[in-house]
Amino acid sequence: MNPVVEQAFFTYFFISLCILSIGVIASRNIIHSAFYLLIFLLHVAAVFLFLNAEFLMVIQIIVYVGGVLALFIFAIMVMNIKEELKHKRFVRFALAGVLIGAVFFSGVYLFVKDAKITEKNLPEVDVSLVGKLLYSYYLLPFEILSIVLLVALIGGIILAKKLPREDR
């Protein structure tokens, strides 16, 4: 691909991902936030495609767009989010969230600023090798992750059944 066109695509994705991420956290309507998250995740999948990581693109779409976002929408529909926002339980932690985000992005910047990519060190992409590694060498972390996701699902169900404070 022409380097100028490639640079234009990455610039577009950088700007659009920044705008969409701000839309996810700044939108007052939770459904609009979920929609911004959907578009954000699809853009991330497109970035994976431009980086010649087709397997990650497919996994991004299947797992995050298809699974996690559907779970978010389900949780939004089950929980009474408007009641939670009325109590302003989450707003009081906004400054702490901004500070933690600033520290996180500063750490990422310090970690990445001196990184160099050499194409000689990149191995061949083989999906069957990833599958074999996932179900042999990384089986225990994979199973632990599935248990963590199951606990998060059960916690989400318990939170969804929780009544608002005024109804108690």
From TrEMBL:
<keyword id="KW-1003">Cell membrane</keyword>
<feature type="transmembrane region" description="Helical">
    <location>
        <begin position="138"/>
        <end position="160"/>
    </location>
</feature>
<keyword id="KW-0520">NAD</keyword>
<feature type="transmembrane region" description="Helical">
    <location>
        <begin position="57"/>
        <end position="78"/>
    </location>
</feature>
<dbReference type="GO" id="GO:0048038">
    <property type="term" value="F:quinone binding"/>
</dbReference>
<feature type="transmembrane region" description="Helical">
    <location>
        <begin position="33"/>
        <end position="51"/>
    </location>
</feature>
<keyword id="KW-1133">Transmembrane helix</keyword>
<protein>
    <recommendedName>
        <fullName>NADH-quinone oxidoreductase subunit J</fullName>
        <ecNumber>7.1.1.-</ecNumber>
    </recommendedName>
</protein>
<comment type="similarity">
    <text>Belongs to the complex I subunit 6 family.</text>
</comment>
<dbReference type="GO" id="GO:0008137">
    <property type="term" value="F:NADH dehydrogenase (ubiquinone) activity"/>
</dbReference>
<keyword id="KW-0812">Transmembrane</keyword>
<feature type="transmembrane region" description="Helical">
    <location>
        <begin position="6"/>
        <end position="26"/>
    </location>
</feature>
<dbReference type="InterPro" id="IPR042106">
    <property type="entry name" value="Nuo/plastoQ_OxRdtase_6_NuoJ"/>
</dbReference>
<comment type="function">
    <text>NDH-1 shuttles electrons from NADH, via FMN and iron-sulfur (Fe-S) centers, to quinones in the respiratory chain. Couples the redox reaction to proton translocation (for every two electrons transferred, four hydrogen ions are translocated across the cytoplasmic membrane), and thus conserves the redox energy in a proton gradient.</text>
</comment>
<keyword id="KW-0874">Quinone</keyword>
<keyword id="KW-0472">Membrane</keyword>
<dbReference type="Pfam" id="PF00499">
    <property type="entry name" value="Oxidored_q3"/>
</dbReference>
<dbReference type="GO" id="GO:0005886">
    <property type="term" value="C:plasma membrane"/>
</dbReference>
<dbReference type="InterPro" id="IPR001457">
    <property type="entry name" value="NADH_UbQ/plastoQ_OxRdtase_su6"/>
</dbReference>
<feature type="transmembrane region" description="Helical">
    <location>
        <begin position="90"/>
        <end position="112"/>
    </location>
</feature>
